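Lecture notes, part 5. Sequence design as translation. It can be helpful to think of inverse folding as translation between two languages: the language of shapes and the language of residues. The source text, in structure tokens, appears below.
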């Protein structure tokens, strides 16, 4: 399969799925990937047509062509890394706004922590699924804070009577609920996060797809 074939077929759909203000820059980046693929195809074909090369020489030249093409994809890899780092920052910003911060005054903070302990004591009598449901449905910031800052707790007794430590609420569920709550509190940042994630994914699909096509075409080349 010629490098870039899939991207040529799917590229427009990738672009149309992005926020409108990202489409121009995304088109430029995808053109960088396509250009690298087309140059690779042309140079590899020239190597194949060169009758002066031995089979070993042809294989070595093909590796050089592939290595050069992979190097051209590096700029898009950098863009993917930059966008990924930005999504991490945006998500952290959102999550920090999901639950109000604790009070700074020492006396108020002590009362606050004692209140959280009382709430946790009440919630420990519930099963993990019941605590998760409370976390998912509660709008009380103290209940939310008590759950989010809770240490692991003992599970309900198993059939053999033993118990194990388990999260107060599963970390995956907690992250999803916190992010959903944060998105409601800050829809602008949430929209930006979704748009940046989409842009990073388009770049990732494009560059990884062409890289795989190049590596499938020429063996013995290490991915950069």
């Amino acid at each position: 399969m010629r490098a870039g074939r899939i991207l040529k077929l799917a590229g427009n759909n990738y672009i149309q799925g992005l926020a409108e203000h990202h489409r121009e820059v995304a088109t430029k980046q995808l053109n960088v990937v396509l250009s690298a693929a087309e140059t690779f195809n042309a140079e590899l074909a020239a190597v194949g047509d060169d009758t002066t090369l031995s089979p070993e020489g042809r294989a070595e030249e093909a590796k050089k062509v592939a290595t050069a093409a992979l190097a051209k994809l590096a700029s898009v890899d950098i863009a993917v890394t930059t966008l990924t780092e930005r999504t991490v920052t945006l998500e952290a910003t959102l999550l920090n706004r999901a639950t109000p911060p604790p009070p700074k005054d020492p006396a108020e903070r002590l009362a606050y922590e004692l209140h959280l302990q009382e709430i946790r004591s009440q919630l420990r009598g519930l099963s993990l699924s019941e605590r998760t449901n409370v976390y998912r449905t509660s709008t009380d910031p103290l209940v939310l804070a008590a759950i989010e800052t809770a240490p692991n707790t003992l599970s309900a007794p198993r059939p053999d009577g033993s118990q194990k430590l388990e999260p107060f609420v599963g970390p995956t569920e907690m992250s999803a609920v916190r992010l959903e709550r944060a998105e409601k509190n800050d829809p602008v940042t949430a929209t930006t996060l979704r748009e940046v994630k989409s842009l990073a994914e388009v770049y990732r699909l494009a560059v990884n797809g062409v890289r795989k096509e190049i590596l499938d075409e020429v063996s013995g080349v290490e991915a950069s």
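The translated text above is only one of many valid answers, since several sequences can fold into similar shapes. Residues 106-185 form one domain.
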